[in-house]
């Protein structure tokens, strides 16, 4: 029975790999009905197919919902409202499936006869994805059972949870071993595979998180130096191999080649593997869905500085903030990430959903009942990494960049600040803002004088820069969790902009909404109407701030307050898993919990 189960798992892994990745040479020359373990682990092509499967099952990809677990975007969910019950998080089994697949690969490669030069990068990739799976587990639950080999029926299956510190130590060991085995660089045909620099950068990210309040609430462990050292080492490797900031913040997503210096760790898509993220965040089209993911909140929009880097509340800025035309004279990352009412943003979409390339967010402005009911909740749509040339009913192949060079720099800045090197952190913020296109009118890119000498203020500045630079990339929710900042949101509501047309709009032609809209568009194109003039815009549209939380659909209604619970920082092990293993302890903070995730 033990041999049968092990063989079955192995066969499923191989066949799954062949389904995910077509390899003509193997399919033409190999009798798939007679695949054995010896054949696979003695053949570098078949072994590579198994590693490739990890890129499909374990590698992160596009998500349009992560920002809903933060103050950056609309998102009516039980996590933010404090309504989660036991067994709400079910990622446990899936991560162990990734770990099992990685262990099969590692054991198989050790037993096979593949040349050592071919074997090393394959083992390195498997170790990386095993570390990633454990990292996702430990940030969700705290310490978990460490399974580092294939388990058979005669092995001890009812393993206890390792401590969080032990689990993180294993993750670091796997990443160190992976880095030793992985190449610095791949040829273009292998672009997207994990490199030595990616493994080193991931180690830095892990140690940065481990040093933060999530795992060290009272900041007594002194872990920041280790994080800083790991991040600096990663940067040295990546710099030596041509990595750096892409010259274009807006376009960096669309270069999926070694020529893109920003991409450290990616997930690639093609005609056979696509994603629907673009459809979820761009304006709604009936029958397609989308439009309400990653709608920016007032809080996020207010985070962007003016074009000279000054805060919108700073009256020393060279630019005046307009609370209605809030897109004017802002940090260029604003227009690279957001699109607003009356913005010219041509998409491949049918009339009446878009005409003349303009985007409208005012109530009942699309002239289609279903689409009007699904317009953005906040008065803004997300345009970051959206390919406007893709028809509304097609999926996208735009790569997901799990780690950008900009994140690496911001990670270094954060660790540097925590060990008293505020000057180094400031230099990094300068580089990030310079690439963004912020004007350097004061020699500080708008950052406060003396910031580098105040650890607390610099910490806030770095978190703010992360929020802007990495908006809608899943980092804000992680930062709130990592630094235990969710409690600062409790009792508040996320806000958006509610936009309505005025009588003056209705009088433009005396005709329908669509006719008036087209007339306004034409007049804007010719320059006869300038919607970037406050008086002109407000003549046609009214803008109100309102709650976008549950129970609030129009201005004046009270929505449900955010109520993120303390025990959500570490979730409960699912009951179905506990029932199968009496040696597993439940996480503290949950019914019957005795396991301390902070040890």
Q: Major sheet: order of its strands?
A: 1-6
- Total beta strands: 8
- Tell me the overall shape: globular
Output the radius of gyration: 26 Å
Q: Architecture of the largest domain, CATH level 2?
A: Alpha Horseshoe
Overall helicity: 40-55%
Q: Could you give the order of the helices and strands?
A: HHHHHHHHHHEHHHEEEHEEHHHHEHHHEH
Write the CATH fold name of the largest domain. Answer: Serine Threonine Protein Phosphatase 5, Tetratricopeptide repeat
Fraction in beta strands: 5-15%
Tell me the structural class: mainly alpha
The multimeric state of the shown protein is single chain
Mean pLDDT: 92
Family: Belongs to the SusD family.
Protein name: Starch-binding associating with outer membrane
Domain RagB/SusD: 261-590
Keywords: Cell outer membrane, Membrane, Signal
Commentary on this structure:
The chain is mostly helical and 599 residues long. The chain is 42% helix and 6% strand. The protein has three domains: 1-63 and 83-165 and 571-599, Serine Threonine Protein Phosphatase 5, Tetratricopeptide repeat, CATH 1.25.40.890; 183-268 and 399-486, Serine Threonine Protein Phosphatase 5, Tetratricopeptide repeat (Alpha Horseshoe), CATH 1.25.40; 287-394 and 489-549, no CATH class. The protein is globular and about 80 Å long. It has helices at residues 2-20, 24-29, 37-41, 44-57, 78-81, 92-111, 116-141, 164-181, 196-211, 224-240, 277-281, 298-303, 332-337, 369-372, 405-418, 422-436, 455-469, 475-482, 503-506, 513-526, 534-540, 575-580, and strands at 263-267, 338-340, 343-344, 358-359, 380-382, 400-404, 495-501, 541-547. Strands 1-6 form a two-stranded antiparallel sheet. Strands 2-5 form a two-stranded antiparallel ribbon. A two-stranded antiparallel sheet has the order 3-4. The protein contains 22 helices and eight strands. The model is unreliable at 1-12 and 18-32 (pLDDT under 50). Its main location: membrane. Pfam families: SusD-like_3, SusD_RagB. This is Starch-binding associating with outer membrane. Residues 86-208 form the SusD-like N-terminal domain.
């Amino acid at each position: 029975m033990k041999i049968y189960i092990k063989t079955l798992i192995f066969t499923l892994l191989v066949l799954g790999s062949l389904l995910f990745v077509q390899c003509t040479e193997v399919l033409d020359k190999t009798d798939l009905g007679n695949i054995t373990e010896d054949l696979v682990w003695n053949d570098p092509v078949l072994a590579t197919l198994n590693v490739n499967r990890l890129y499909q099952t374990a590698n992160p990809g596009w998500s349009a919902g992560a920002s809903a677990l933060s103050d950056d975007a609309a998102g009516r969910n039980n996590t933010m409202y404090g309504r989660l019950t036991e067994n709400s998080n079910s990622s446990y089994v899936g991560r162990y499936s990734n770990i099992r697949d990685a262990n099969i690969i590692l054991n198989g490669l050790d037993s096979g006869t593949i040349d050592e030069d071919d074997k090393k990068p394959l083992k390195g990739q498997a170790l990386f994805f095993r570390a990633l799976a454990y990292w996702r587990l430990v940030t969700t639950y705290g310490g978990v059972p460490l399974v580092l080999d294939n388990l058979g029926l005669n092995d001890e299956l009812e393993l206890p949870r390792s401590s969080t510190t032990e689990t993180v130590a294993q993750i670091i060991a796997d990443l160190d071993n992976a880095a030793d085995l992985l190449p610095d660089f791949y040829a273009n045909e292998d672009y997207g595979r994990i490199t030595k620099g990616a493994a080193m950068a991931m180690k830095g990210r892990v140690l940065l998180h481990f040093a933060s309040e999530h795992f060290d609430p009272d900041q007594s462990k002194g872990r920041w130096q280790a994080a800083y050292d790991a991040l600096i080492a990663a940067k040295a490797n990546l710099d030596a191999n041509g990595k750096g900031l892409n010259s274009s913040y807006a376009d960096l997503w669309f270069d999926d080649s070694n020529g893109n210096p920003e991409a450290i760790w990616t997930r690639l898509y093609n005609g056979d593997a696509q994603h629907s993220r673009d459809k979820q965040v761009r304006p709604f089209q009936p029958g397609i869905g989308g439009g309400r993911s990653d709608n920016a909140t007032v809080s996020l929009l207010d985070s962007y500085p003016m074009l000279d880097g000054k805060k919108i509340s700073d009256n020393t800025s060279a630019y005046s903030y307009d609370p209605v035309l809030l897109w004017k004279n802002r940090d260029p990352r604003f227009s690279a990430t957001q699109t607003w009412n009356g913005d010219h943003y041509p998409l491949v979409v049918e009339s009446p959903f878009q005409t003349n390339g303009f985007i409208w967010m005012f109530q009942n402005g699309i002239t289609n009942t279903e689409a009007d009911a699904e317009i953005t909740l906040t008065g803004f749509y997300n345009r970051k990494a959206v390919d406007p040339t893709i028809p509304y009913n097609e999926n996208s192949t735009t790569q997901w960049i799990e780690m950008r060079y900009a994140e690496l720099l911001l990670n270094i800045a954060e660790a540097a600040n925590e060990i008293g090197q505020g000057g180094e952190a400031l230099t990094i913020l300068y580089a990030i803002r310079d690439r963004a296109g912020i004007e350097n009118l004061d020699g500080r890119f708008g950052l406060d004088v003396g910031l580098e000498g105040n650890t607390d203020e610099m910490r806030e500045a770095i978190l703010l820069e992360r929020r802007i630079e990495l908006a809608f990339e899943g980092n804000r929710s992680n930062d709130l969790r990592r630094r235990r900042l969710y409690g600062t949101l409790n009792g508040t509501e996320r806000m958006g902009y509610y936009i309505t047309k005025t009588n003056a709009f209705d009088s433009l032609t005396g005709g329908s909404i669509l006719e008036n809209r087209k007339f306004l568009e034409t007049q804007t194109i010719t320059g006869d109407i300038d919607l970037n003039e406050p008086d002109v815009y407000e003549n046609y549209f009214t803008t109100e701030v309102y709650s976008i939380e549950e129970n609030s659909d129009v201005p004046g209604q009270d929505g449900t307050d955010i109520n993120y619970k303390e025990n959500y920082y570490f979730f409960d092990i699912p009951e179905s898993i506990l029932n199968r293993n009496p040696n597993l302890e439940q996480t503290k903070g949950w019914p019957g919990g005795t396991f301390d995730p902070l040890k």
